[in-house]
Amino acid sequence: MRHAKKGRALGTDASHTSAILHGIARAVFVNERIKTTETRAKEVRPLVEKIITWAKKGDVHSRRLAMGELRDKALVHRIFAEIAPRFEGRDGGYTRIMKVGPRKGDAAPMVIMELVD
Q: I need a labelling partner for 63 at 20 to 30 A (CA). Which of 37, 48, 52, 87 fits?
């Protein structure tokens, strides 16, 4: 039973869902713009926004929390040094999700998820 479990299962078990979301979050930070399904984008948005908020704080604890989520030291350094300073004057809403229509194979609703500038 899934009692008191937050979020969507994305058609997999919990560990695979977690791995999918962390991979998408890394892709958003590396490319700053990705194309994915609407469901996955809606699930990963809170994670991405939380990491950017940690990066805006800039302290050691926030860096360690981000490292625990992303597991990539170079990427965490890039987020803290380059990406977070762009959002200093913004209190949330760091990502944008734009619908682009259905996927050809299975008609899944596709979106472009990007960091707002």
A: 37
Phi, psi (5° rounding) for residue 73? -60, -45
pLDDT in tens, the chain (117 residues): 878 888 888 889 989 999 999 999 999 999 999 999 999 999 999 999 999 999 999 999 999 999 999 999 999 999 999 999 999 999 999 999 999 999 999 999 999 999 998
Asked if the structure places residue 4 within a domain, the reply is no
List all residues 6 or more positions away from 71 whose beta carbon is below 8 Å from its beta carbon: 22
- CATH number of residue 39's parent domain: 3.90.1030.10
Sign for the CA dihedral angle at 11, 7, 86, 64 comes to: negative
